[in-house]
Specification:
single chain; Rossmann fold; 5-stranded parallel beta sheet; two-stranded antiparallel sheet; about 30% helix
Length: about 160
């Protein structure tokens, strides 16, 4: 995705913390990313993902105490929503390596550890919006950005 004009980007913010959500919405609008769709809990998240054509999703790994990162895998597999490969950035306060691996296995483009300033998050998102994104792969067990290092990729 190469979006130099952010006004055409379909965006969803689902972070579950009203103050963080408001700060992100304000930062996105200031960056000429149009008013994003919002979801406050797992049910709303599923509804928006199912119905909206999204280019960018910024979401927490948990909403209302529910682990919602697996919805990313559903999107990537084409089981949820009209577009399987939007840019997905997951926000989490969890620093446990096993839990971070579980989130990563769902197929997000990036995992951002909180706390994080909105400007820093926007800077990371802009890398993806400028087209600098890992190739997307679909295998029996994973769909999302290529995670293997150059040494592990088998030549074709």
């Amino acid at each position: 995705m190469d979006h130099k004009d952010h006004r055409s980007i379909g965006t969803l913010i689902a972070v579950g913390h009203a103050d963080v959500q408001l700060g992100l919405v304000d930062a996105f609008v200031a960056a000429d990313i149009p008013q994003p769709k919002e979801a406050e809990d797992a049910e709303e998240l599923r509804e928006v993902l199912a119905d909206a054509a999204l280019d960018l999703i910024v979401m927490s790994s948990h909403l209302g105490g529910e682990f919602v990162a697996p919805m990313i895998a559903e999107v990537r597999r084409g089981r949820l929503g009209p577009h399987p490969f939007p840019v997905v950035v997951v926000l989490t306060e969890d620093r446990d390596p096993a839990n971070l691996r579980q989130i990563s296995n769902c197929g997000p483009d990036d995992i951002v550890l909180l706390p994080c300033e909105p400007e820093e998050l926007l800077s990371r998102i802009n890398v993806f919006l400028a087209g600098d994104r890992r190739p997307l792969v679909v295998t029996a067990g994973y769909a999302g950005p290529e995670r293997r290092t150059k040494d592990r990729v088998t030549p074709t």
